[in-house]
Structure formats: structure tokens, C-alpha cells
Amino acid sequence: MKTGNFKFFAVTISVALQLANTVYAQDQVDNITASYKEDGKYFTADDVPTFNVQDDGTIDWPSYSGFRRYHSECHVCHGPEGEGSSYAPALKNSAVSMDYYDFIGVVASGRENISASVTSVMPSLGDNPNVMCYLDDIYVYLKARGMDKIPRGRPRKKEKKHAVIREDEEDCLDSGT
Amino acid sequence: MRHYLILGATALALMASTASANSGLKSLIDDPNQWAIQTGDYKNQRYSELDQINAANVSNLQVAWTFSTGVLRGHEGAPLVIGDMMYLHTPFPNTVFALDLANEGKIVWKYEPKQDPNVIPVMCCDTVNRGVAYAENTVFLHQADTTLVALDAKTGAVKWSVKNGDPSLGETNTATVMPVNDKVLVGISGGEFGVRGSVTAYNIADGSRAWRAYSVGPDEDILVDASTTHLGKPIGKDSGLNTWEGDQWKIGGGTTWGWYAYDTDENLVYYGTGNPSTWNPAQRPGDNRWSMTIMARDADTGVAKWFYQMTPHDEWDYDGINEMILTEQEIDGKMRKLLTHFDRNGLGYTLDRLSGELLVAEKFDPKVNWTSGVDMDKTSDTYGRPAVVPAYSTEQNGEDVNSANICPAALGSKDQQPAAYSPKTELMYVPTNHVCMDYEPFRVSYTAGQPYIGATLSMFPAPESHGGMGNFIAWDNTKGEITWSIAEPFSVWSGALATAGDIVFYGTLEGYLKAVDAKTGELLYKFKTPSGIIGNVMTYTHSGQQYVAILSGIGGWAGIGLAAGLTNPTDGLGAVGGYSALSDYTALGGALTVFKLPN
Asked: Quick one: which of A61, B107, B200, B408 has the most CB atoms within 10 Å?
């Protein structure tokens, strides 16, 4: 039943995206569908990182890594599983609606929204290796959440961690980004 | 059998007559018509002698007046009432209102500090503030950015201000402060940013620093001497260094953002310290002293008399900062000066507050599973230590391993929301969380001013229970037993109030103010306020009439997970939405609601 749901969603989403591509070919880019895989990571046709969920529910390693890092670095403000809190937006939606490069930019540089009744400040996390070394992972996890492709809670099945991912991670943490 | 009340009152009366700079505050605290300190009294009992509103008539309670704070963030703490004035605070931007109770709540003055908004994102878990303090015609506001400001109580004019910490390093404040003698005691937040916790005493007269006691580090920093004990034995040299590996203590946590108590006879202050940093236990081998510790310090010098570390080498983020409730009760046939503490780790501790001797350590939520109990054998090598159940040990399971179904969750069986004590029933009334978690620690690196956490956790309602996320319990602190328990759909995140009218008040996250019978827990009254309640109930009189007041305004830790609802990941897809989200019941907005009986 669960896999049935996954298949159903996968089919409807890909149909919807194909339609979107056809109709809005000029200004609407498919930011979701995995086009190719490289060293254990998935990318769209435009080389934007994205998630991949197999029929049996197995998710890509970066999405799993993103689940872990999100719930360490982001969740005390943005709520569990990107659902939002009483004072910070639901990032599962931002990851879908925002352009990848804009999303990265806001995390790295931060932004403020201060008025009489609102006091929202996104900190600049650009020099935090615990975030920046895993930012693509967090991004693809949230995008999968926003598309309802990964359910709430801990992902159960994941792909193995690719050797290149492990090497890149060590390089990134060592460099202190 | 019921002589403790008189004893307490006599002690206070004696102290009031000694020459101390703010004996004025002590007599205000003694007068039940005022609410002069956030904790109700120095003993943190949150008990009022007022009985005009009582078990027989509380069902008639009605709203007298309301006041909007104009702020949408989570509203913790409570207003103070001194004479005709009510002093009401807000979360960031930390506005303070002085309201004239003799003039229908007219705003006499308003103080709004200017703070760098960059402090907002370095506050873990919303921008709450637990209220102002009062002494010597001065209102003390400890702002989010750690500025302590002394305001003239009549005009709101700034007398002095001092900066206690550096928000660019993640040092922030959420707590109230405690005026004691001629000083005001101030804590610090930032355990999730590697802040090294401390308590600092500033002189009320001019804001100059009198002393600072760190929670971890060298002996000269943690203010200990040869007479400082842990469970009756000297703590020994360098205890705040040799229980850490390398320099980890410098970013070691042990922050001090809870409620403080004060024994006026002994001149001792009591408070608890928070989690060691990071949340990944593998990165900080050792007992990590003195994080997770109950501390007794001399109010004038800060030197520690005794420590008790409840959770050595924390593996679950069970901060020890919750309130210390001071009582005089008979235990094992002997009258003793007790300290009772409901820890995040799910254990209710009763200690002798003079010696630091451990008398009771029992689970106040039967679902607590990370420990099989505390070793109470004084001859044992592990005396006073909790026995950790290996399956729930995130240290033993190791980095990158998910330890599942640990109870309680990181927010604890109880967080800062303070309990109340009634000397009439000799029961503690405790707001609790009934939430469990999965916890996976992993390696993190430290960057100054950036989050320093190193664990992923998922939280969900306690499995195989009533399905709700909270309980409101009555606890016998001399026996370590639950007397009665009320199941609540959400964590009870509101401070309780017990009164001589044989009733206990508390608020709920859906926004209800509830009054229950102090003996039985029977619900006598409820009223839905404008927003969810994470504030603390208080009471006072004006013109001979008793009032009960509560701040509503959902947010804080409760606003993080509960706004979206919690799910049990082990239930898989089917459970999503199985637990209703708080957002189906309430919405944001700070408001004070004041109740009274009909005329």
C-alpha cells in the first residue's frame, strides 16, 4: 500500500511536470526530476541537485544526510521535517518554490524581515561547516519533503554512501569552509 | 504535623528584620496581595495565601480585563504586581509596560529597548523572555541580547545598564533575574552554541559586577574551595577540568537559563546548569562537570557549598536548569530543609538543601526508560549516579547510530515550566511533557556564534500511553510518588499556581486556563484564552478583590514541533496526521487575561 502510494505520486508528479514543461517551456524549469546520477548524487537536466526515491522507498544518500543535518542545524527554528514553526517558515515549501541558487544564497548570507509585528531573522550560515558542507543534502531532503516524496519521520531505506561523497565531506570539513 | 508553614513564615520575618539592602522585597514577597517575584517567593513554591477564589466558587470565575502585548512570539513568564502597578514584559523586542491598576490598567510608562535583530536567530527555540524582577523601586529587565537594564519603577527611566554576554558568540538571555540582598543574579543561554555557562551577580546600586561563577572550567572560575562537596565528599581539585578531554570545557555549555531559589536563613542560592556542548557525547569524553548540576552557592561571594550532578556525561540534552523548590517537611520522621527538583531527565529529586544529601530520586513519568534508577547506596562507587540502560545510550550505541524510542525526549519530562507546592496538601503540582524521541549523534565542528549541536532527533508522543503529549501531575516529594495525574493532549508548558483556596491553576497549549481541586485533580473551571499558554499563572489583590492572571501567546520550544504536530516515525506513513497539530487549536498573539469572581 505504501509503495502503491509512492508510485501513484511519482506518476502524477512526473505527468504534471511534463505538462508544465510543455506549456511553460520558456519560464518554467523542471527543478525536481532527476535526470542523471553522478557519484551517488542526483541532478536535474540543469545540473541542480535533486532527490531520488526508488519504488521500494529507498532514498538517495544525500537526502538521508540532509534529514540528519536538517534536524541538527535547522529544526529548532524551522520545525520538524521542514514543516515550519510558530516563528519560521516551512522550508519544505521554500526548497520547491525557490530557485536553487537563491536558496543557497539565503542560507549563506541570511536575511531579515523586521516590522512592527514581525521579527524574523535568518542568520548567515556561510561560515558554518556543519551547514555549508551539507547544504546540497539539506536542500534535496527539503525538496523531497515539499514534493511529499519522503514521508515525515526518519527515512528507513537509503542508498550506500558513495566513496566520493565521503572524500568530499572530509575535504570540506577539513577546509573549515 | 503541619508546622512547616509557621516555621517558614517565622524565618522570613526574622530575615526581614536584619539589615539588608532589599528587605523591602522580602516583605513584598511575604504579602500575598502582591506578586513581587516571578517565582512567587524565594522558595519557588508558587503558592499564594489568598483564598477569596477557592474550590467552592472558582467555577464562577470570569474575565475582568485583557491586554494585548502586540507581539506574536512565545510569551513565557508572568507580570509582577507591586501596589497599584503591574509590570508586564514581552518576548523580543522585550517591551516592558507599567500598568496602573487603580486607573483601569492605563499605561503609565512603556520601555522598548533597541536591540540588534541579529540576536534573534542565535536564540535557540524562539525569542521568549521569562519576565522582569523588582527590588528597591527598580524594575530589572534582562534583554535577549544579555543587556541587564535597571529601570525606575515609577517612570521607566534607565538607571543603569550592563552587558552580561556577547550575542555574536551565541550568548543570549531568556531568563528572569533574581534580586538577593544588594545584588541581582543573572544567568545566560546558549548551550546549543557552545557557550560556557555562568551566573553573575551585579550590585543593585550601580550595576557593577560583584562575582561570576562559571559552571565548568578551572577552580578559580567555578568558585569552589576545599569545603565544596558533591554528595557529602570534597569535590577535589580541578573537577571542572579533569572531567573533560582537552579544551572542550571552553565550549562546554552548562548554561544557566532556569529559575533560581534563595534560602534567606542560609544565604544560599540554588540553581541548575544545562547540557554540556555538543549533543554528540562521543566528542566530549568524561563526566563533563559541572554541567547538569544542582548548585548551592553563597549569595554574597558565589562560592559553592555543594554540587550534585544529576546526569554525568549527558547523552540526551537533559538540561538541569529546572526550578529548585524549597520546603520544610518531615521525611523519615525528621523535619528537614528540602530542595525538590523535577529534572528534564524525568527524575524527581528531593535533597537536603543544607548538606546536598540525596534523599529521593524517582521517575515522575512512568514512561522514562533511559535509566533503571539512581544508585542510592552511600557505600557504592556509583552512589548518586543514574544507571544508564544500554539500548537507550547514545554514547554506547555510538556516532552515526540512531538510538530509538528514548523517553523522555530532549525537551525533557519537564522543561522550565515551573511546578507549584501547596503546604496545605504537601504536594507538588507539576506540568509535564509526555514525549519520546529517536536520537542520532554525529561529529560536528565548532564555529564561534554558530549552532553547535551534532545530533538529529525526532520526537513523538510517548508510545503505548494515552496518546497525548502531556500530563499535569500531583507529586509527593517525600515519597517520590505520583498522587494523581491528568492526561493532556499537548505538553503542559505553563507554570502552575497553588493557592490556600485549595485549587491549582495551570494553562494549556490550546489556550485553556484550568483550575483543578488541589486534593483530587478534579477539573473545576476552564476558559479558552486568545492563544496557547506557555506563561505562568499568578495572583494578586487590588482594592480587596483577588485576581488571577495569565499570559497567552503560543511559541517557545512548544512552537517548534507542536505547531506542525509530532508523529511517530516508527508508525510509518499511516501516522502522519494521526496526532492533531496544535495549529488546529490556536494561533499566535500575546495577550494577558485577568480573572476575578463576579461582584
From this structure: B408
